[in-house]
Structures are given as C-alpha cells and as structure tokens.
Amino acid sequence: MDYRKLAASSNTETRDVMKISEPVGNVYEMVRVISKRANQISIDMKQDLDSKLQEFASYSDNLEEVFENHEQIEISRFYEKLPKPSLIAVEEWKEGEVYYRNPAKEKDLF
What we know:
- By secondary structure, this protein is an all-alpha fold.
- It contains five helices and no strands.
- Helix 2 runs antiparallel to helix 3.
- The longest helix is centred in the middle third of the chain and has 28 residues, at 27-54.
C-alpha cells in the first residue's frame, strides 16, 4: 500500500453513521467490517515499518554505543505522521474499496 497517496485526513471527524452504513444496512456490521479492515491496515503498516527499520538494526552487544541514524529517524517520523489505520479504513469504506461478505447471510440464500 502506498501511504503517500492516502486521502484520509489525519484528524478525527464527526460522520453520519446512518448514512455511511447504507451499503450494509446495519451500523454494527459496518463497524465490524471497518474494524477488521483497520486491523489489517495496522498489521501491514507495522510489517512495512519493521522491514524498513531492520536495515538499520545493530547486532552488537555493546550497550554503551549510541548511534543516531538520521534516515531511521526520518522513517519513524513519516510513519508517525500517517493517519491512523481506523481513519484509513473509514475512508476506504466511504469510497467503496472494502470487500466484505457475511457467511451467515450467504448460508440463508442456499
């Protein structure tokens, strides 16, 4: 996922949940889908950050050495300034980019 092209705001906004829950018809199911998507985004961001910071890892046993790497600091600052995963998931939901299904409802159709 390219985090630089995100349209999600970094601030929390008040939203009309009844309006954005129309595709599902149930507010609680919408919250469940958005929370699962936010968890997926969070895991993806964490793995991405860990892989970038792994390049700067020091495996020496000497704890007295403090090495300040400016590239590592810039990467950390970039990830701190990103919108929260929940805000990204809400924006994806509003744009219709989230695929979801409810197996319990699908079972009734058969």
